[in-house]
């Protein structure tokens, strides 16, 4: 007797019924995996802020307070006036890969606080030094308000005696070493949206929206996908087990037949 093929066993009503059941279970597991994946995104920390809408500085920050996540990268404006004599040059300021200099100043805000302002960038030290000297004597560029992107202060570094200009936009260093009577001060700084001549605008792009996945939900999503694959694998193993049993059946029948022939006594020869 010839043993059936695997395809024949798989096409039997019992196997097809098990396949339909397995597909249904796998589909349910896949749906649960998709649900968990959507939950991983929904439960993630999505930073969506109207950073390109110009707000007043007081709406997003306060003097002497840490810069919050909602304030970093926000376009703001602040009325007030320049504080005379507090313009200086920062060195090693890279702008789109080019090394150069910033000219920064101190802006007295309408709420009687101090705001550090990066006025503009130039690749030439002489231009930056001349602009800072001119604005220190003339009271700064003629502006009724400053507008630009509000950023977080950089960390201060120990002063280097051989260094001509500071290199960090550190509010702490400015308040403690450069400016007099600068308290209260905003702990962030502003980069002007339109730099006054002879400086160029500082490249300050909008912050990217950040999405942090919930990894526990993501793990559950992967787990449900594995369960879905396991459901189909179980069907395959059940059908294969039936097929293997039927493969062994004919062989055992042939062995039993051969064994029976060998043990049957021969009929006596008539004389």
Task: Describe, in plain words, how this protein is organized in 3D.
The mean pLDDT is 84. The strands form two sheets. The chain has a five-stranded mixed beta barrel. Strands 1-9 form a two-stranded antiparallel ribbon. A hairpin with a 4-residue loop joins strand 5 and strand 6 (114-122). With 271 residues, the protein is α+β, with helices and mostly antiparallel strands. The protein contains six helices and nine strands. Among the domains are: 29-48 and 214-226, no CATH class; 55-208, no CATH class. The chain is 41% helix and 22% strand.
**Total strand count, please?**
9
Name the overall outline.
rod-shaped
Distance between the termini: 39 Å
Main-sheet strand order equals 3-5-6-8-7
Decide which structural class fits the backbone.
Answer: alpha+beta
Q: Could you tell me the strand content as a percent range?
A: 15-25%
Question: How many helical elements?
Answer: 6
Helix content: 40-55%
Q: Main beta sheet: strand number and arrangement?
A: 5 strands, mixed, barrel
SSE series = HHEEHEEEEHEHEEH
Low-confidence stretches: none
What is the radius of gyration computed over CA atoms, rounded to a whole number of angstroms?
A: 39 Å
Arithmetic mean pLDDT? 84
Short account of what is shown:
The chain has 271 residues and is of the alpha+beta class. The protein has helices spanning 6-10, 13-42, 57-60, 125-138, 171-178, 215-263; strands at 45-46, 55-56, 75-82, 88-95, 98-109, 114-122, 145-152, 185-192, 211-212.
